[in-house]
Inverse folding.
């Protein structure tokens, strides 16, 4: 009887447990199964079923925990709980698809964090100008998400900055080797990337200066060759050299004008195969300039104005191109070009002044201490001879030191020999020839009150004009006298030494054969002639009076 009751009780508890299990009342089922086990631990499959229900209860609890964390977006915790569920029952590990979503959310968060990290590294590298590292980081971001933030823009910006940095190093390298044209080429590429980066350390600016200097030196070399050819009357070579100096409307110095003159002289020479006729000069230009003295240098005529404290410089068309204010009005009248034509000497207050013949800039004051009446450059352009009422000096132009001096009265004219070894001086006592380097007087003539003096280009003849109405010509051991009808004010040899031009207060200019002293022609003027000058090629003659400068061309 007791055994039957015991069995009935176990059956009843087991039945309750199974019923609870069927209705998923896992906790009730576990309690019932444990009551059965306390009575009979080996009753049927109670242990198995108790454990099964306990697991199902644990699963149900974990799923609730999982849903709770999912509702708060704690997706990593959701995955942790899901893993525990999977170990209990893989089929129960993804309730409502929340574990799947958690995987997606965590992957997205990791993806986002990785992008943020790469982007932050890129930005940090960019801030420290580590452009190459920044480019690498931005490209990694783009491999994951090509549209992430402003990655494409920043990658391109850093790539440009890296390119700029590389180009700047290339520019510095070429600058260190003096390859200035390459520097400018690299600078232009930099300018297209970033104008503000195109001149690192001022090297592009320097490159421009160096290239301009190089171009100027090349032009100056051409110009020097052209001038040398011109002075040697090699017109074809001079024209060829001047050509590039006038290309494309870019004229270097006075190249265009000089080339035109060379062409003109070439035509003259070609048309004068049998020589020119100095007996019949033609008036080709008249300039309304009040002339006290004049000087001719290639394409320029300089006139010391009779009644103004000015020197005016005219081109070969008679157009005034420069005015120099000397500050000294009235006579004596002094004007002379340096051998290279770039400088000009004039009288000044208590001395002589050397000017830039191209710009009119004052270059040097020669402190004679008294008014000068005569001045001449040495053939090499390094010295200047001056004459005054009391003394003759030779000055070193660079140091302004006296390298020769001689006491003389009322000096009116000075002239160097073509080789610069002698200086001839005309004064009230006559004519003296000095050897400056030894201070020896090697010739003297006492024909008094001479006004003008000149050396022939071969150094074999000296001419002087004076108040005695005569031109005195020394050479070949002879002294000749050439007549005028009034005091002689000016004398000049032609560049080849064959002709001598003389001007006088008798209103005439006379052309003489310098060899035999025969008069070739007489050129009448309206008033006294104060100055004469041959062109550098000897084909023209300029004459100056108080109201005009006239240019005569030999036919």
């Amino acid at each position: 009887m007791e055994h039957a009751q015991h069995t009935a009780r176990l059956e009843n508890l087991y039945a309750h447990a199974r019923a609870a299990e069927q209705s998923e009342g896992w906790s009730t089922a576990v309690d019932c199964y444990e009551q059965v086990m306390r009575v009979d631990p080996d009753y049927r499959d109670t242990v198995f079923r108790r454990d099964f229900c306990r697991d199902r209860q644990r699963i149900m609890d974990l799923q609730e925990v999982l849903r709770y964390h999912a509702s708060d977006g704690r997706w990593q915790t959701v995955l942790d709980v899901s893993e525990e569920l999977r170990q209990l029952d893989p089929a129960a590990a993804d309730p409502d698809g929340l574990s799947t979503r958690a995987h997606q959310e965590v992957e997205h968060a990791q993806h986002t964090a990785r992008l943020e990290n790469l982007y932050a590294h890129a930005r940090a590298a960019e801030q420290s100008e580590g452009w190459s590292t920044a480019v690498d980081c931005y490209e990694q971001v783009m491999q994951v998400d090509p549209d992430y933030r402003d990655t494409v823009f920043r990658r391109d910006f850093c790539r440009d900055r890296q390119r700029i940095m590389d180009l700047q190093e290339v520019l510095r390298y070429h600058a260190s080797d003096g390859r200035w044209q390459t520097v400018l080429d690299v600078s232009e590429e930099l300018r297209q990337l970033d104008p503000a980066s195109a001149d690192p350390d001022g090297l592009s600016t320097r490159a421009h200066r160096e290239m301009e200097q190089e171009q100027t030196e090349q032009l100056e070399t051409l110009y020097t060759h052209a001038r040398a050819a011109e002075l040697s009357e090699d017109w074809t070579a001079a024209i060829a050299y001047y050509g590039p100096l006038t290309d494309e409307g870019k004229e270097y110095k006075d190249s265009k004008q000089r080339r035109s003159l060379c062409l003109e002289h070439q035509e003259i020479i070609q048309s004068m195969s049998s020589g020119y006729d100095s007996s019949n000069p033609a008036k080709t230009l008249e300039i309304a300039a009040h002339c006290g003295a004049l000087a001719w240098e290639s394409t320029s005529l300089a006139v010391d104005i009779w009644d103004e404290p000015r020197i005016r410089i005219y081109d070969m068309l008679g157009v005034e191109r420069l005015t120099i204010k000397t500050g000294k009005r009235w006579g004596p009248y002094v004007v002379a070009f340096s051998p290279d034509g770039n400088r000009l000497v004039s009288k000044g207050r208590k001395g002589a002044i050397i000017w830039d013949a191209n710009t009119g800039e004052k270059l040097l004051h020669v402190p004679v201490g008294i008014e000068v009446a005569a001045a001449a450059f040495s053939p090499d352009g390094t010295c200047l001879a001056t004459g005054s009422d009391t003394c003759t000096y030779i000055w070193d132009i660079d140091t302004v030191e006296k390298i020769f001096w001689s006491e003389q009265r009322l000096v009116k004219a000075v002239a160097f020999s073509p080789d610069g070894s002698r200086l001839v001086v005309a004064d009230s006592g006559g004519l003296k020839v000095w050897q400056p380097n030894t201070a020896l007087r090697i010739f003297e003539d006492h024909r008094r009150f001479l006004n003008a003096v000149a050396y022939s280009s071969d150094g074999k003849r000296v001419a002087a004009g004076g108040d005695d109405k005569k031109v005195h010509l020394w050479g070949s051991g002879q002294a000749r006298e050439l007549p005028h009808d009034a005091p002689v004010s000016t004398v000049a040899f032609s560049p080849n030494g064959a002709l001598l031009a003389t001007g006088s207060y008798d209103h005439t200019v006379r052309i003489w054969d310098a060899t035999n002293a025969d008069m070739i022609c007489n050129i009448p003027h309206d008033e006294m002639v104060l100055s004469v000058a041959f062109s550098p090629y000897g084909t023209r003659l300029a004459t100056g009076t108080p109201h005009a400068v006239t240019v005569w061309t030999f036919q």
Q: What stands out?
A: The mean pLDDT is 90. Residues 2-93 form one domain. The two ends are 172 Å apart (CA to CA). The chain has four domains: 2-93, 109-198, 208-271, 282-553.
